[in-house]
Structure formats: C-alpha cells, structure tokens
Amino acid sequence: MQQGIMELMWRSSHVSGSNVHYVEALYEQYLDDPSAVPDEWRQYFDQLPRPDGSATRDVPLAPTREQFYQLGRQRRTALAAGASSDSDENRKQVKVLQLINAYRFRGHQKADIDPLDLRDAKPVPDLDLSFHQLSKADLDTEFQTGSFFLGVDKAPLKEIVEALEHTYCRSIGCEFMHIVDTEEKRWLQQRFESVRSKPKFSDDVRKHVLERLTAAEGLESYLASRYPGTKRFGLEGGESFIPMMDELIQRAGGYGTKEVVIGMAHRGRLNVLVNILGKNPSELIDEFDGKKVVERGSGDVKYHQGFSSNVMTPGGEVHLALSFNPSHLEIVAPVVEGSVRARQDRRDDPDGGKVLPINVHGDAAFAGQGVVMETFQMSQTRAYRTGGTVHIVINNQVGFTTSHPEDSRSTEYCTDIAKMVQAPIFHVNGDDPDAVLHATQVALDYRQQFKKDVVIDLVCYRRRGHNEADEPSATQPMMYSKIKEHPSSRTRYVKRLVEEGLLTEDDAKAMMEKYRDDLVAGNHVANALVQKPNTALFVNWKPYLGHEWSGHTDTSFDLKRLQHLAAKMCEIPDGIGVQRQVAKIYDDRRKMQAGGMAANWGFAETLAYATLLDQGHPVRLTGQDVGRGTFSHRHAVVHNQKDGTTYVPLQHLSDGQPRFTIHDSFLSEEAVLAFEYGYATTAPNDLVIWEAQFGDFFNGAQVVVDQFISSGETKWERLCGLTMLLPHGYEGQGPEHSSARLERFLQLCAEHNMQVCVPTTPAQIFHLLRRQVIRKLRKPLVVMSPKSLLRHKEAVSSLDELANGKFQMVLPDQGKRDPAKIERIILCAGKVYYDLANWREENGRDDVAILRLEQLYPFPEEELFEAIQAYTNVTDVVWCQEEPLNQGAWYPSQHHMRAVAERLKAGMGGKLKFAGRPASAAPAAGYMSVHIEQQRQLVEDAFNL
C-alpha cells in the first residue's frame, strides 16, 4: 500500500519543483487538521519521519519542503531514465537530508562546550551514519545538500559530515530548531553553516580580544593579591565574558543604539564596572578599603553597586547603565526591562532599536528563579516588550559550592526555560574566545533583526569558591582538581596566537604589565570610555534632587479647564458600540462634569490623570484588570461591542498630548511590579502606577518592595516615584481578598523613604495622585485603595473640592459638634470610618469625634494635633481598625498617636485604646457570618470601650 502511495506522489505534478509551494501549503494545512487534506496526501504525510527517526506530524516545514523538492527532482530524473521507483540512491538521498536535520536538532548535545570536559555527554544516535541506514561505503558518494549552506548543491557525504561536525559539534552548540518561524531558522542556519561556526577574524580583532581578556584576568589577579580572602565574586574562569560584553556594546553602537542597560548579579560585576563601564580603579580600591563613598543613607556592598558612563562606538557615543541590585539574583532582570522601556518611550523608539537591554544571569539562578520565567513571558506583550533582550548566562556549572547540576534543575540545560518563547540558545565554550565572539555577534544581529530575546550560555567554570573565602574542594573535589591544573582562557588564547604567529610571548607579557601599571596608577582601563560624556544621553534627574519632605503641595486646578477635560474624557466617537453598564457609567460622568451629580471615585481618579496629561506629565498604568478596574469602577478603556476594538478617551484629550499608557498585565506580580519600578526610576516626570487586582496579591512581589521600593534610596541613592494602588478593605471576602498587609509597609517605613496613604474620598485620591507628580519630591507612594467605597453613596466629592481642594493628611470630624462636649476621639483610617459615622448617627453619640488619618507615613503629627487641639475635655482616645490586633497600623503607628495624645493632655498617651479584630494568624475570616459579627463588635468597641 505504502509503495503505491509513494509512486503516486512522485508521479504527481504536485510535487514538481515549480509547485513546491502548493505542497508546502498542503502540509501546513495537514498540521492544523489532518482531515482537511486528501486521503493520499494524509497517508503520505503520516509517514514523514522526523530527525529522530520516528513517524510524526511534528516535522519542521522547511526540511519537509526540501525533501519534497529534492526527492521530486530525483524521482522525475529516475523515472525518465527508466530507473526503479524505489531506487537505493533516492532512499539514501532522503537519509542524508535527515542526517543534516539531525545535526541541526541535536548537534549541540555532542558539541565541545565544556572547558573542563566534565559534561556527561551521552551518545547521540541520530548523528551516526548507521542510524540513517548509511555507512562508510557512502562517504565518497555525492548527495544533494538541500538547504545546508555548503556553498555547493552537491558534495561527497564525507564533506557534508565534516562540515556538519564543524558547524554544530565544536565550540558552539546551537539550539534553534524549536523555533516555529521558518525565516528565523533559515537565518540562523545561514549564519552558522556558511562559516562552519568559525569565521575568520582579522588579526586586529583577535589582538583586541586578547587585550580585553588581559583586562579581565589582570583585574582579578590584582585584587586577589591585594585583598586575599575578601569577597569579590571574581570572574576567574569566565574571563571571556569581558570581550563578549565589549563586542555587544560596540556592535550595538554600530547599529545606532544610544543606550544600553545592563542587569547582572555578583559574579564578574566588579570586572564589568572597571573594564567595561570605566569605573576608576582607585574608587573600587577605596571601597575595598572600607571608605564611605555615599554621604547619606546606609550604602551597600560593592558588588551590588550600579554605575553609568558613556563609551565611544563605531556608531557614536553610547550611554551605559548598570542597574543597582541586591542579592536576590534574578529580580533585577524585570527592573532592567522597565528601565529600558521608559528610555524607549522617551526616545519614541517602539521597535527598540535605540535602547538595548542586556541581562546577565548565573546558571543555577537562571534555572531556579521563577521571575526568569515571568520576565521571558512579558517579552512580547504590548505592555512590557522592549524589542528583545540579550541574555547571557555565566555558566560556572555549579550554582553554590555544594550544589550539583542534578540538584540544580530537572532540565538538560540551565537555559531550557528560554525555549518557552522560542528564543535561540547558543552554548559556547568559554575557553574559545573566537567562538565566543562569533556567538555574540550572531546573538546581537538576531535581536536586531527579529526584535526577540536571545540567549548566550557562556559555559565556563569558577576558579575559586562561591566567594573568595570559600574552599570549594571540600564538596566539589573532582571539579576543583581539574580546575587546579587548568590554564586560564587568556593563557590558552595567548598560546594559540603565538603558534599562529600573531604575536610573541613578550608581546603578551607587555600587555599584561601595561594593564597592571594602569591599575596601580588609578587610570581608567575601559579603553572606549568617553571622558567628557554627552549629557543629553542621560536621564535628567537634576530638577528632582535635594528636596526635603513636604506633605503640602498646591494641587488645585482651574474649574473651567477641569470641566473641559472632564467632558473630553467622556467623549466616545460615533460608531463605537458601548456595553450597557459602561454606557451608564459614562452618562453619569457627564452629569458629574456638569455639576448635576456628585463626583464618585472613578470620575475623580480618571480626571486626575486627565489634568496631569494636560500639564505635560505622561501617565502609565498597568495591572491585571486596570482597563476596567477589578471592581469595574474605571473603564478607561472602552471595548467596542461591534468588533472588539478598543478606544481610550484619555489618549484623545488634545493634539500632541503626553502618552497615556494603560495595559492589563499578564498574571504576574513580581516581574510586573519590578518592571514598573525600573520604569519609574527612569521616568521622573511620569506618573507610573501599578495596581494589584487585590491588594493582598502584592505579597507575590514582596521582594520588590523590600529590596527596591522601600530601601533603594537609602542603599543606592536611587529616587523613584512609583505609585502602588492596593485594593484594601474588609468586605467578608476572606483571607486573600481583604488586606493589603498595611503593617508590612509601615514596618518598612523610616527616613521618609516612602508614603503610605489611605484616602477615603474621591477628592482625596484626585489630589493625592496629582501631588505625586506636581511636587518635585520623588518618593514611592503606597495607596490602600478602596473597594466598596468606589460606589458608596457617602464617598463622594464636589467639583469645587476637586478644583480648589488639596490632599489632607488628616480629615477632621465631619459635622458641627461643640468641641467642649467631645469626651472621646476615635482615630481611624479607611472605610471603617463610614461604619463608625453611621453607628454614631444611629446611636446619637455626639460626645465622640471621629478623625481620619489619610496618610499613615510620614505620620502627620502636626496636622493631627491641629485637628484635635480644640477638644480640651477629652478623656479617651481610641484607635479603631478593621485589621486584627497584630496587623494593620496599630503596632507600627501607636507611638506616633500616643505622642500627639500626650501633647493634647498630659497622660493621655497612656490611655490610648485599641478597637479592632482580635489577633489572628490569618488576615481575615473566611465566613461571612463571622466577618459581620467581628465588624459589628469592633465598631461598638470603638464607642464603648
């Protein structure tokens, strides 16, 4: 049966060379739906082999096309000559094409990529002639090469195999056949196969590579001799990383790149600072000597420090920025992406041609940290794409000194996670600098060509332990016995260049001596450094420096202009079908604009964005439901019910207005919040907001809060105006939908490092958001934003309060009560105020004043005292909160409240009382009946304790 089908195929005109596109389209249709093609074609396609020899439909389109074309041509020739339809020559031709494909798929498993030769490389049967029913007897037979870039259409099998071995099984192991796009695969095949993965570099280029290797090794040996045993996380064993970085930056500059942002953990960081970015060696020595290098704040260890400089490239001056980052390894990756996106937006660079992100990883962290997956997942999304990132893994082949690859991951390579976005991966032997150079060039060219992520796996080793005080042989005896005898990459490269007659041993020695002399003299050793940089390439932070804390800012706005903007943000063009509930929201907003209806939260918030845009401030808002808002209060994005397209009124306020960016994020907190932090640190004039779906969910990004948002300024003098909107409030929705963990933020507050606010009216959120950008002070803002208050009938404001008001850190008691009759003051924050006010009204308790603390940090002591000083007959002060006793603002803030109470009346601070839920391990009750009873009790306690 099969023989008859094959005969039919080859006799058919459909497989002729001129109709190969028709066959290709049929095959593509078959892959989507086998029943959609004729029976004879389906039966043939079912039998097509893949490179491992099994029959499957999962065959790459390009190799299949080659099989159709080559076999069809040979079959026609054979038939014309009267040859047998199943001739041995045609069968072997098919097998040769399969062999070529097998090398493309699996050659990397045989490649010589491990400098220490520790890799347990299992045999790859697909690469044996016998697997494809070929033998040594066929080596002199000529075969068609198909799409293999050999320079000829036909060659002896031995030449084909030799070329495949050189291309895919030497110092570079290529993984790219997992990519679906045929054009990308063809492009990569051509780049490697045309030069056998070993292009001929000029003498000058290779001498430059040696000079950079000398710099890399020279710095480490100098520091090792001067500071033995001191932590520096040296690069020894991975010195090829420095010429790699040098080539990336220089080549990117040639493409017209103007800025490069780099993220990396500890390994090799000091080397990059000195030899790539041009940090003066004398400054590094000062840090080793323990001298204080920042005037304010705590500072940080030297291998967490960032730096920026300008270097000269063939395409002109390029600004380099190495991001500050803590010991949380991969968390810096999305921060870099955010910084890059901000720079691209500033340059109106949507395709990423002018700003390049480079993220440098460790092998164990790349495989082990979940934020790596999140960063890859965001790479092609509208909100977070940056035109492709060059990822470099400094693969020491051991994560920590005690770990083993079997315990570090479940995948063959540490880089397998990158396949999820079809990123090509180049495994390269760090002891072959020429191969490193080639892989680097192809990687950058791929990124520039296809605007996608690419990974270079620099397989090397670590000559010392996890740090220089560690003795690695205790747990890695076999590896370190080899390392002890293994010459450095520079030593091996010098030997190669001397043997090739490129230089002498004396030349190499003189190169090292010159570098050492420059280090000792404190000279810059980054040879492309621009001493007088073009400051136009920098992000201008000067207007935002040196401002002390002030809670008061004029955020008023002309009423007529306010109403004009309110009308504009409610305009929806004809032809857009608006969903019924959304239409009602916009109708109500038009009434609010006209003054016929009080302003609710959604109206005031979106109007704040409109006024900031009108005043020249771009606005960026992302999160999992931000377009409509998790609780459907915002609807800043209108979805056309007729065709599914979207319209954003805030993007159409006026011609030439600043950017208003709003995107629903993918389901991530950690990477997304880190991205927005990176964006905000690079866009000081913008209002940058991340909104959690529920405030509780920020705990998936706790590391970003701990390491960047709360401490970035005091550690690194890094200013940031990021705003976090965290829906918070006890509505009976259970432990994961009630609390944004207010207490965690307050525990992190010190030195005026950030703001924590709990606004309770539309006017308050309007002025709070405006204050965040209008004033020049740049501090992170954490907003405990409401849920039920979004539509609460009493949580409304007037247009006059929006136009002429300001953000009040303390809202005084509402109503006209005689201060002399007030015996108790209840202090609170958030929506519990409305429960307290209703209970007071229902029970006629005019002897109680209720004050709202709208800002909990920096704590407004003066404003609070001013609000209560008239109550001279008070005998009790109560703090009331919805959160349990061990959570919320009680423990972090009670000392502030006591201090104010003492000022009101001596001894009053000692009588400060608590009303709230009892201490609990969970943030909230999971049963509505329990929630209701707890809420009733805490409100009554506030009045009757």
TrEMBL record:
Protein name, per record: 2-oxoglutarate dehydrogenase E1 component
KW Transmembrane (keyword) present: no
SUPFAM superfamilies: Thiamin diphosphate-binding fold (THDP-binding) (SSF52518)
EC number: 1.2.4.2
A GO-annotated cellular component: cytosol
Top-level EC class as recorded in UniProt: oxidoreductase
Protein keywords: Glycolysis, Oxidoreductase, Thiamine pyrophosphate
Family that this chain belongs to: Belongs to the alpha-ketoglutarate dehydrogenase family.
Cofactor(s) listed: thiamine diphosphate
Catalytic activity: N(6)-[(R)-lipoyl]-L-lysyl-[protein] + 2-oxoglutarate + H(+) = N(6)-[(R)-S(8)-succinyldihydrolipoyl]-L-lysyl-[protein] + CO2
Function noted in UniProt: E1 component of the 2-oxoglutarate dehydrogenase (OGDH) complex which catalyzes the decarboxylation of 2-oxoglutarate, the first step in the conversion of 2-oxoglutarate to succinyl-CoA and CO(2).
Transketolase-like pyrimidine-binding domain segment(s): 599-792
Species annotation: Halomonas beimenensis
